[in-house]
């Protein structure tokens, strides 16, 4: 029976989908690791797990499409109006909604600036939308001239700041130049998934000045709620209203709404501030320790909850860490990131374990070379 079914799938499958490769998420790359792994430092997750209360009284009812308690709390947190906000299943759904709402399949294109987050391209490909590229400069700043050359050729310009995986924040003057250049032709999408680690560079308070920007946010990183899958799109009301036309009717499960509202309450925000402080301190210690290794060179900046570094022994070091229960992320396939690995800042215990294994790796390498 398998062969007829496979023939049917081949017959019916969207031609645009056939050649796609799924996004290589941290979980997919190590789906068979199970509980053997002790330190997950590859997905930019928080090492903290916080407790929340759940009320099951409404589980028999469909949830609100846009839960008021979540919308109002996040709008207050971000300093915007409630009609300038949409909550979705992670910021990833926000990416897809923007593409579906503002790009016509087979006709329009988006612009990305690699090296950057991979889901912009994946979502565009899935929606049969073209992808243009203006790679970052060698110092990971925007190539503004290259970006501006795409005016009239793209509907969306995706810019990640702080950028994943380089940890760099985009210069505000550069970004303003891009926003104003595309004012009458494209929406500039600013991905602020890591903004809690770089709060002074948010564009949220400037929404009213620029009708062609949309901002992506998430509870997955600093809020320590990656398992919740809750993200936000911030924009002027006309963009939000357009996204409401293409979002699913019940996108936010009731338990997700309850937990998100608690995370955005007074106690939740106090916890957020405390844990971001811990991670920033741990990040500084990690950077200092990594710089002591001769074969490691830090790459990019530290405006997020991860550190990117380059080593000529990338593959061997990665294999050693995996074999010893530590998962980090290989970024060497990205533009200008040859031999680069990315470490998520973990708990003090995880970071100590990581550094111990890196030190042991280089000691073993030296011993082997001297033998």
Structure report:
- The structure is a single chain.
- The longest helix has 25 residues, at 266-290.
- The chain is an alpha/beta fold and 371 residues long.
- 38% of the residues lie in helices and 14% in strands.
- Helix 4 packs parallel to helix 10 and helix 5 crosses helix 6.
- The strands form 3 sheets. It has a 7-stranded mixed beta sheet, sandwiched between helices. The chain has a 4-stranded antiparallel beta sheet with strand order 9-10-13-12, with helices on one face. It has a two-stranded parallel ribbon with strand order 1-11.
- The relative contact order is 0.15.
- It comes from Paraglaciecola agarilytica NO2.
- Residues 53-358 form the Aminotransferase class I/classII large domain.
- Homodimer.
- It is an enzyme of class 2 (transferase).
């Amino acid at each position: 029976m398998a062969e007829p079914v496979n023939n049917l799938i081949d017959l019916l499958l969207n031609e645009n989908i056939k050649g796609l490769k799924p996004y290589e998420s941290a979980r997919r790359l190590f789906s068979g690791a199970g509980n053997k792994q002790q330190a997950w430092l590859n997905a930019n997750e928080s090492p903290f797990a916080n407790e929340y209360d759940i009320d099951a009284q409404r589980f028999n009812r469909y949830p609100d499409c846009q839960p008021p308690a979540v919308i109002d709390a996040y709008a207050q947190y971000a300093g915007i109006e409630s009609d300038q906000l949409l909550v979705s299943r992670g910021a990833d759904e926000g990416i897809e909604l923007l593409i579906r709402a503002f790009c016509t399949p087979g006709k329009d294109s988006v612009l990305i600036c690699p090296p950057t987050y991979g889901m912009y391209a994946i979502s565009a490909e899935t929606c049969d939308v073209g992808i243009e590229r203006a790679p970052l400069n060698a110092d990971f700043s925007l190539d503004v001239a290259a970006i501006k050359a795409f005016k009239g050729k793209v509907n969306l310009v995706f810019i990640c700041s702080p950028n994943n995986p380089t940890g760099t924040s985009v210069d505000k003057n550069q970004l303003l130049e891009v926003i104003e250049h595309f004012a009458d032709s494209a929406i500039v999408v600013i991905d602020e998934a890591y903004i809690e680690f770089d709060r002074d560079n948010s564009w949220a308070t400037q929404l009213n000045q620029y009708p062609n920007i949309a901002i992506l946010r998430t509870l997955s990183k600093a809020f320590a709620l990656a398992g919740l899958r809750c993200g936000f799109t911030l924009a002027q009301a006309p963009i939000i209203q357009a996204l409401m036309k293409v979002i699913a009717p019940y996108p936010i499960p009731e338990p997700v709404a309850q937990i998100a509202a608690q995370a955005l309450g007074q106690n939740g925000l106090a916890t957020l501030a405390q844990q971001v402080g811990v991670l920033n301190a741990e990040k500084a210690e990690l950077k200092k320790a990594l710089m002591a290794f001769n074969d490691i060179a830090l790459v990019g900046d530290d405006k997020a909850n991860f550190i990117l570094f380059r080593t000529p022994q990338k593959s061997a070091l990665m294999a050693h860490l995996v074999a010893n229960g530590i998962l980090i992320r290989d970024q060497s396939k990205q533009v200008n990131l040859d031999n680069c690995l990315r470490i998520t800042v973990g708990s003090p215990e995880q970071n100590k374990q990581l550094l111990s294994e890196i030190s042991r790796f280089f000691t073993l390498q030296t011993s082997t070379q001297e033998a």
